[in-house]
Design goal:
alpha+beta; 16% strand; 8 helices; single chain
C-alpha cells in the first residue's frame, strides 16, 4: 500500500473493508499520539491554575493511544474482539472526576482513540479543532456576578439586624441560608451578590461584636 493510499484509508475510508497492514497500524497509533499530545496542550492551557493535575493530563494521551489500539484489534479479528469485550466488561473505574471539564477532556481522549482506530482520523481532527474553539470561546465569555456564601461569627445573636443592614447596603441580593446561636454567640450563613467585597468586609470587621467573616464562592473554595 502506497503512502497516499495509507493516508486515504486512515483519514476517510476506515479499516473495516480489508485486513489491516503493519504500516496502517503504525500510522494510526502515531496519528493518535499526535492528537493526544494536542489534547494535552489544550488541557494544560485551559487549566492554568494551581489545581492542574499533570498525571491526569498525561493519562489523556495514554488513553487515546490505548483506545485506538483496542479498536484496531477488534477490527482485525472477530474472536479477539469478543474476548476483549468480555475482558473490558469487568473493569471498574472508581476515581472521582471533580471538575466537569475534566470529564469533557476524558471523553474527548476516548473518542479520538475510537475514531482514529476506526480509520476516520479526519473526523477526529476536525472534531478536536471544533472542541478547542468551543472550549476557549465559552471559557472566556464574561459572566455576571456569582452568588457568594458569607459566614459571619458574632459574639451576640442580637447583632443580626445590624449585620443584615450592612450586608444589604453592600449587595444587590441577600438571603439568610442558616443561623445558629448559643451562649457563646451566633453563626450566620448568608447568600448574597456582593458589589464590593473589601468594603463589606471592612464595615463588618469594624463592629466589635463580629469575630470572623468568611466568603465561599460557587466552587466551594474559601476566599477570605
Amino acid at each position: 500500500m502506497g503512502f497516499y493510499e495509507l493516508i486515504r484509508k486512515a483519514m476517510f475510508e476506515g479499516y473495516a473493508s480489508e485486513p489491516i497492514s503493519a504500516s496502517t497500524i503504525i500510522f494510526c497509533i502515531f496519528f493518535t499520539a499526535v492528537l493526544g499530545a494536542y489534547i494535552f496542550i489544550v488541557y494544560r492551557r485551559v487549566n492554568s491554575t494551581s489545581f492542574y493535575n499533570r498525571n491526569f493530563n498525561v493519562s489523556l494521551v495514554a488513553i487515546a493511544v490505548i483506545t485506538a489500539a483496542i479498536i484496531l484489534t477488534i477490527q482485525s479479528n472477530i474472536v479477539v474482539s469478543l474476548g476483549m469485550v468480555g475482558a473490558l466488561s469487568i473493569v471498574r473505574f472508581r476515581t472521582a472526576v471533580k471538575d466537569p471539564l475534566d470529564l469533557v477532556f476524558l471523553f474527548w481522549s476516548i473518542s479520538a482513540g475510537i475514531i482514529c482506530g476506526a480509520g476516520f482520523a479526519l473526523i477526529a481532527m476536525l472534531a478536536s479543532l471544533v472542541l478547542t474553539v468551543i472550549i476557549v470561546v465559552l471559557m472566556n465569555v464574561k459572566q455576571g456576578k456569582n452568588v457568594t456564601l458569607m459566614v459571619v461569627n458574632a459574639k451576640s445573636y442580637e447583632a443580626e439586624r445590624i449585620i443584615m443592614d450592612i450586608v444589604k447596603n453592600n449587595s444587590s441580593y441577600s438571603h439568610i441560608r442558616s443561623q445558629n446561636a448559643d451562649e457563646h454567640g451566633m453563626n450566620m450563613t448568608i447568600e448574597l451578590r456582593i458589589r464590593e467585597r473589601e468594603r463589606l468586609l471592612h464595615e463588618l470587621m469594624q463592629e466589635d461584636f463580629v469575630t470572623s467573616v468568611s466568603f465561599v464562592d460557587h466552587t466551594e473554595n474559601t476566599l477570605i
